[in-house]
Amino acid sequence: MSSKKRTNSIIGSIIGVGVVGVVAATMMIPSTAAFTDTKPARVDISTATLTLGVSDADNSGTIDLDFNNLKPGDLKTQSFNVRNDGTIAGTVNVGSNFTDSISPSNPAVTYQNLRVGAGAASGSIALSASNALPAGGWDLGVLQPGEQKTFFFDVKLGAGAGNEWKGQTFGGNLPVTLTQQ
């Protein structure tokens, strides 16, 4: 055999072995190909509600409490309803900061004689002098979603109220608040 043929034969053998080696090596490398499938996931997000409903005896959707014709020593009570029309529990509070208030016209009137309070049971409400109302108002407890409770507002004109109280008017708005628990 000529040396040229022999060289070609050796080169052909080396190339053949190399091709076989490359093919074998390729077969040993794990494949990264894989089947996949994707589906959308529906996501709904909503927030809770806290909705205050109020009414007095006439179910008007407001609280209008009138304490008329008080005499020294009188204690008068009126009820009002508070309901939670929301989806989460809330704490009911009647604020003690009179807004849009009308003060008695007689400067001699001492607010110590006028006592007010709000609570869950008439007659057991701790009354505060209207010039020393509790800073945080009256906490009336928790209302669950859909729950309604009746509360009471008591007003007392002290027995020591003198003539300076004759014909006086006093009034204002007390905020009723429902706060998330």
Describe the protein in words.
The protein is built from one helix and ten strands; from the N terminus they run αββββββββββ. It is an alpha+beta fold. The strands form three sheets. Strands 1-2-8-5-6 form a five-stranded antiparallel beta sheet, with no helix packed on it. It has a three-stranded antiparallel beta sheet with strand order 7-3-10, with no helix packed on it. The N and C termini lie far apart (101 Å). The mean pLDDT is 81.
What can be said about this structure in brief?
With 181 residues, the chain is an alpha+beta fold.
Low-confidence stretches: none
Amino- and carboxy-terminal Cα gap: 101 Å
The overall pLDDT average reads 81
The helix fraction, in percent, is: 10-25%
CATH-derived topology: Immunoglobulin-like
- CATH hierarchy, class: Mainly Beta
Rg (C-alpha, Å): 42 Å
* Structural class label: alpha+beta
Which band does the percent of strand residues land in? 25-35%
Strand order of the largest sheet: 1-2-8-5-6
User: What is the β-strand count?
Assistant: 10
By CATH, the architecture is named Sandwich
